[in-house]
Amino acid sequence: MRILIVGNGGxxxxxxxxxxxxxxxxxIFSTRPNGGMLIDSQPVDISPGDIESITEWSVSQDVDLxxxxxxxxxxxxxxxxxxxxxxxxxxxSKAASRIESSKIYSxxxxxxxxxxxxxxxSFTNSIDALSYIKKRGGAMVVKASGLAAGKGAIxxxxxxxxxxxxxxxxxxxxxxxxxxxxVIEEFMEGEELxxxxxxDGQDSCLMLPSQDHKRIGEGDSGPNTGxxxxxxxxxxxxDALLSQIQDEIIQPILSGLAKDDSEFRGLLYAGIMLTDAGxxxxxxxxxxxxxxxxxxxxxxxxxLLDPMMAIANGESISGLKLHWSGKAALTTVLASSGxxxxxxxxxxxxxxxxxxxxxxxxIFHAGTSMSPSGLVTSGGRVIAxxxxxxxxxxxxxxxxxxxxxxxxxxxxxxxxxxxRELSRSDTQLS
Length: 430
Prior knowledge:
The chain has helices spanning 10-22, 51-60, 71-76, 78-84, 98-101, 103-113, 126-136, 159-171, 239-259, 292-296, 305-312, 353-356, 392-405, 419-429, and strands spanning 2-6, 27-31, 42-44, 65-68, 89-90, 120-123, 140-144, 153-156, 182-186, 191-200, 204-206, 211-212, 215-217, 221-224, 229-232, 265-275, 278-285, 328-335, 361-365, 368-371, 374-377, 381-389.
């Protein structure tokens, strides 16, 4: 089997790693892979965003499956283009990808269906938006409507913070075209949950829920990033809660998309806030989350490739049951100095050999590349260090041990990933 992975970040490294283990004999290719992906895949010198060249290459190489990792190519219509050429592809269409590429579309659809989410208003005019901010007062969330690499939502504690966020998004164009429209939402209190759901357009199968940490600083302080770490399992995510999320959120949004001629086939990500009034949607994404994937997929004991192939070939996944290892996983992101603002590139990375020999330690690359002199940094989020263990406490310890051993100049990471769950565990033990 010949499989192409589109994308070259941490999420795509995990996908290559998992598919290699699901099907050791398959030929796996990836678009301009990072330094770590070269272990499990062969490089294809095409940009992940060049959907025409990707389609042409896939047809010429008789590719059996294309797995699209990032949201950009999905929003640009890569799945539609590949489908028109008869190439099986895992990922939603351009129309279905609007669930992430347009927050205004997503929020409006949720409101029409009655899916619980934060109250909101959308604006294309900054003067009107500022007037609403002043009228609303208090804490709120200001979001760029378009794709902003996971950084487009700014939590604001007061009117002044919200006004500054609005200026950055709409006037200073911090997120480019993504900020031409903004959504201003009520601030929801609670704890967040990341839920992945495989979908054939009609039926869904939930994966192991996880929790990520968006803020750069410990204690969840400072500006948002693309994600500084994640962990699973979560004690709050009971079977009853997950059934409620599937029945009241996942299945209704799939039905709503299908009725809007936007049937969703692929991986639907639901960001959930666990409020006093029950679970509410923070956002939907049209692909695997990063860095949640680095914690979730290493615990998947059954095949991921099989359901992806079924979905790509238009088959049903009704009755699908996934099997999990029963262990815990925690991943810590090692970022470049200065991230999430400007950061240096091309700095040498040293990964001790002892880590590669540790079965409880997994290294997933994101912003790395191979230079003539060896592995170097090439992005803001450089490496995700995942620890596996029987308990989350042990997994956290292993992840932080790995993070400390990997070396590159200016390395920064959080030492408190999983702090909420670890605090609950400590309470339960005492």
